[in-house]
Write a structure and sequence with these properties.
With 363 residues, the protein is mainly alpha-helical. Helices cover 67% and strands 5% of the residues. It has a two-stranded antiparallel sheet with strand order 1-2. A two-stranded antiparallel ribbon has the order 3-6.
Length: 363
């Protein structure tokens, strides 16, 4: 008797369906790659398909985490892909001009320049949205279009290559047998969770997303909250740009971070965060990003034709979103998962007026 309520509670958890789809996608790879779950140690480094998924999904996780807070305030940020390109272009351009590209002082200065540019982009987006009142999709579209051109101006339309071991560590190096980028992602996610779930910051972000005007009237500085989340989102995109350019030891102003904003939005939605703003889930976003990266890996593993892989990805995303919809589950799986449907209570019979109140006799 207790199995059905527990199963119903489990299936109604916001992480159940994203995790279920992630597990299914992982299992789909086994017939095509029998050692898919195998993890090997080579030269003191761990290698395997699971490690590769987390490694190549690290930039997407970072961008999606930043996007989560922006969406939680009722906004959107389409400029993250361009910020990825700008950050990588500036950093690699500075390192390539150094006589000693492995000098720590030059690498740290290059990182500061790249991340500083990302923060400026975030301030610009936040200023347009919060101060000027421009719709987020329009405000961030400016850098999405112009930023990609700026990145190509920085690189002169060429792919800038670097040969720096310290810089290579960020996206392509290993530490304690694991890819170093995993530790960066873990640190960013942990700090975000602590700030949004262990302090009042998360409630402030959700209140601004629920009703910005009402939040302002009760004393919450909604403008500052909005600017802050756009800066944080751009900073996450900047770190992702460092990872991508570091992993390839090159900066490509045209293709770096191309369409990553769409994958980030999909990851946020799969994770259960509403695009209307309000409540959000960092854990759900991380799972959603892993679903997107696993789906990309699965597409190549099972040999889906390249001209149809985007259609395949869209189909899987639609299925995940439908499975998360309570209305869809109630209509399709209500009888199987939920047992008996709860019928609406019948309206109570209205007592006659004579019985409802005693008659008043006039003497």
């Amino acid at each position: 008797m207790t199995t059905t309520p527990r199963w119903r509670a489990l299936t109604h958890h916001h992480l159940f369906w994203p995790v279920a789809v992630l597990v299914i996608l992982l299992l789909v790879n086994v017939p095509f790659t029998p050692d898919f779950f195998a993890i090997k140690m080579t030269d003191g480094h761990l290698y395997g398909s699971l490690v590769s998924i987390v490694l190549f999904g690290s930039p997407l996780i970072l961008v999606a985490v930043g996007m989560t807070l922006v969406i939680a305030t009722g906004g959107i940020d389409l400029s993250v892909g361009a910020v990825v390109a700008i950050t990588g272009a500036l950093t690699c351009s500075y390192i390539s001009d150094q006589a000693d590209q492995s000098a720590l002082s030059g690498v740290f200065l290059a990182l500061g320049i790249g991340l500083g540019a990302a923060i400026v982009c975030g301030l610009w987006n936040g200023f347009l949205v919060a101060r000027m009142g421009i719709q987020p999709i329009i405000a961030t579209l400016i850098i999405m279009v112009a930023g990609r051109g700026v990145a190509q101006l920085i690189t002169d339309g060429q792919i800038i290559t670097v040969n720096s071991e310290p810089y290579k560590l960020i996206g392509g190096g290993y530490w304690l047998t694991l890819p170093f980028s995993i530790f960066i992602v873990a640190a960013v996610v942990a700090v975000t969770v602590v700030l949004t779930r262990r302090t009042a910051l998360g409630l402030l972000v959700e209140s601004v997303g629920g009703n910005a005007e009402a939040s302002r009237l009760v004393g919450i500085r909604s403008m500052r909250i909005k600017i802050m989340v756009y800066v944080f989102c751009a900073l996450c995109a900047g770190i992702a740009g460092l990872m991508i350019s570091s992993n390839t030891s090159a900066a490509d102003g045209n293709n770096a971070g191309l369409w990553i904003e769409l994958d980030a939005i999909l990851a946020v939605v799969i994770g259960g965060t509403s695009l209307l703003g309000g409540r959000f889930s960092i854990g759900g976003t991380v799972v959603g990003a892993l679903v997107i990266q696993t789906l990309t890996t699965t597409i190549y593993t099972i040999g889906v034709p390249t001209q149809t892989n985007l259609v395949f990805k869209a189909a899987v995303v639609i299925i995940v979103c439908l499975m998360q919809s309570p209305k869809f589950r109630a209509k399709v799986f209500g009888a199987k998962l939920g047992g008996k449907q709860t019928a609406a209570p019948a309206p109570a019979e209205t007592a006659p007026a004579a019985e409802a109140s005693p008659k008043m006799e006039v003497s």
